[in-house]
Design goal:
mainly beta
């Protein structure tokens, strides 16, 4: 139905930058909220950033001013630009999308997770 593919993770030194991408494909009618979560070893998954269909954004306090999320609706893609990275940003990052799916007979809403991409920030 709908597939999400993330890319852009990697190893970076503290103070560096990375840009994550999440591309959705399949039977998509529309996408409302697009979010980024992260999960560090031994910790719970936490919400990092959200962008609504109208372009409104919200960020966790820990990344406010350093991370920026954006979307390209024509490409069904959400981005996370991460600047001034810190070792505590090390985690697996997941995109999460609320999708209205084109079903065989009707549309329906479903939430999807990306496969995750590792971000490692060295000190």
């Amino acid at each position: 139905q709908v597939q999400l593919v993330e890319s852009g993770g990697g190893l970076v030194q503290a103070g560096g930058s990375l840009r994550l991408s999440c591309v959705a494909s399949g039977s998509i009618f529309s996408i409302s909220d697009m979010s980024w979560y992260r999960q560090a070893p031994g910790k719970q998954r936490e919400l990092v950033a959200t962008i609504t269909s109208g372009g409104n954004t919200n960020y966790a306090d820990s990344v406010q001013g350093r991370f920026t999320t954006s979307r390209d609706n024509a490409k069904n893609t959400v981005y996370l630009q991460m600047n001034s990275l810190k070792p505590e940003d090390t985690a697996v990052y997941y995109c999460n999308l609320d999708v209205v799916v084109r079903g065989a007979f009707q549309r329906y809403q479903k939430n999807y997770w990306g496969q995750g991409t590792q971000v490692t920030v060295s000190s």
